[in-house]
Amino acid sequence: MGLVFQYKRAVMEAGDEILKLEGKCGVSGGVQDMYGEDKATEDQLVTPWAVSVASGQILLRDPRYNKGTCFTEKERDAFFLRGLLPPVIMSQEDQEKKLMTNLRNYEVPLHRYMAMMDLQERNERLFYKLLIDNVEELLPVVYTPVVGEACQKYGSIFRRPQGLYISLKEKGRILEVLKNWPVKAIQVIVVTDGERILGLGDLGCQGMGIPVGKLSLYTALGGVRPSACLPITIDVGTNNQKLLDDEFYIGLRQKRATGEEYAEMLEEFMSAVKQNYGEKILVQFEDFANHNAFELLARYRTTHLVFNDDIQGTASVVLAGLIASLKVHGCTLADHTFLFLGAGEAGTGIAELIALEISKRTNSPLEENRKKIWLVDSKGLLVSSRLESLQHFKKPFAHEHEPVDNLLDAVKAVKPTVLIGTSGVGKTFTKEVVEEMSSLNEKPLILALSNPTSQAECTAEEAYTWSKGRAIFASGSPFKPVEYEGKLHVPGQANNAYIFPGFGLGIIMSGTVRVHDDLLLAASEALASQVTEENYEKGLIYPPFTSIRKISANIAAKVATKAYELGIASLLPQPRDLVHYAERCMYTPTYRNYR
């Protein structure tokens, strides 16, 4: 009760001063303001003074500590809440039940997203409790596909800033901006420049919804403390003319900076991050355009603790599904032939990790295993005759073959056993393509990974119907189960949320200083090992999200184990039981008792 006593004493002393002002009313009514706000004209500056003790209205407006109607009688007395809340005292479970009822009454998905963001801003623990306990229902709300629409309309629905906005106006002062963030013990930063948001293109500053959503999942699914997470948007302009003409756009109204100006901005940012937060701050690059994504990862992976979820996270989760599917097909990865539609950061990232995994399993050269993997871009199949015109990240997958200019002909020529879509273009796995895959394979493996749902290469219903129920299907965004000829098919979701929360937790809890490719392979194998026989019977190659916290703990443990083996973990000595240690490290959102 020492803090409460000090607060009461401060209130009594302040009361003595207030009594001296009795009868002196300001122009706005009440007691005259001693800081001059009532005397100030509209164009004069005033100081926003605030009491710093967490009690009364201040406690109710602090999302970290607010419990709403869950404050006990004792807490209401101790923290001056009496009369500020209705008399009912609810449990956190009752609050959760009420909120889920309200959310289900919303017919528009974007309204559910806005309601969840409002909850996060007023009651942090209840937000994460709701998300953890109803993850399969709410994951599509706080992340893909609804977050895509939220980013498109971010200027219109913007209410309260979340995270840091670093624009070209702050160039030369980025360290100063980072120091403005009130929390110093940051462990994970998710940063975007908004140029390639999901499959929706350049959304500029409005891409902030992606870092905010990703970090919500770091906490809910991976157990990283909310206060240790920092979402950042780097605003270098936008080439989206519709946004530039939008009167409610919240970002810089200029075309994107490129070349040296852009590189200098990112270099200053990365240097400032390390200077302010230290060597072991995990920086996750999110939704950068292809040309910048590969360059940033290559430039900083040896000097900083960096991770690109679009390249590495997507690759890891897809590889996990492929490893899990081996039990269904009764073969090895090396027996497969892979065909990708899309040769950007996701497609080439997945392809490279598959080749690396095959190399490690067969002890064969990486270059040889790349030959099992074919990619189609907007101009057709990647072949050696196109080598000079290809971007550097595509060149390893340009093989000897005659030119092929469309996907259907590529399927006929390559005869793949696995078809993977990372094109960002919807409806590209046509009926003819799926039927051709089905004629070549008893159980064709079809992964339509592009987000959001509208950009998926095909739907679950199309995949099952056109393959006559024989396809093994997974997608990037969720699809409902499909009944075909009396059998219920449950589509899997190759969602990065399976990987990056547990992956990040493993890095943090082991004090890993660099991201090594072997850590990604370890995460893939850990996820694949969580698929049960019951899951296989339903046609799933991924475990259900209902057990995601357990899955994340196992991924974290495998990643940490590999980091210790590689000698890149700095937390010593190594904990004996890393799964148990991961579970103990996880943030839990149940309410705390206050004294």
In short:
The protein has 595 residues and is α/β, with parallel strands linked by helices.
How does this structure look, described?
The structure is a single chain. Residues 1-40 and 46-51 have low confidence and may be disordered. It contains 25 helices and 14 strands. Helix 19 (431-440) links the parallel strand 9 (418-421) and strand 10. Helix 15 crosses helix 16, helix 21 (500-510) packs across helix 24 and helix 24 packs across helix 25. The chain has helices spanning 2-19, 56-60, 73-78, 92-105, 109-122, 124-133, 135-142, 146-152, 154-157, 174-180, 209-222, 241-244, 259-277, 290-300, 309-329, 345-362, 366-370, 407-414, 431-440, 460-466, 500-510, 517-528, 533-537, 548-566, 578-585, and strands at residues 164-167, 188-192, 229-235, 282-285, 306-308, 338-341, 373-377, 380-381, 418-421, 445-448, 472-475, 482-484, 487-489, 492-493. The chain is α/β, with parallel strands linked by helices and 595 residues long. The strands form 3 sheets. A 7-stranded mixed beta sheet has the order 8-7-6-9-10-11-14, with helices on both faces. Strands 1-3-2-4-5 form a 5-stranded parallel beta sheet, with helices on both faces. A two-stranded antiparallel ribbon has the order 12-13. The termini are close together. It is globular. The chloroplastic ME isoform decarboxylates malate shuttled from neighboring mesophyll cells. The CO(2) released is then refixed by ribulose-bisphosphate carboxylase. This pathway eliminates the photorespiratory loss of CO(2) that occurs in most plants. A divalent metal cation binds at residues 286-287, 310. It holds the Pfam family malic. It catalyses: (S)-malate + NADP(+) = pyruvate + CO2 + NADPH; oxaloacetate + H(+) = pyruvate + CO2. GO terms for molecular function: malate dehydrogenase (decarboxylating) (NADP+) activity; metal ion binding; NAD binding.
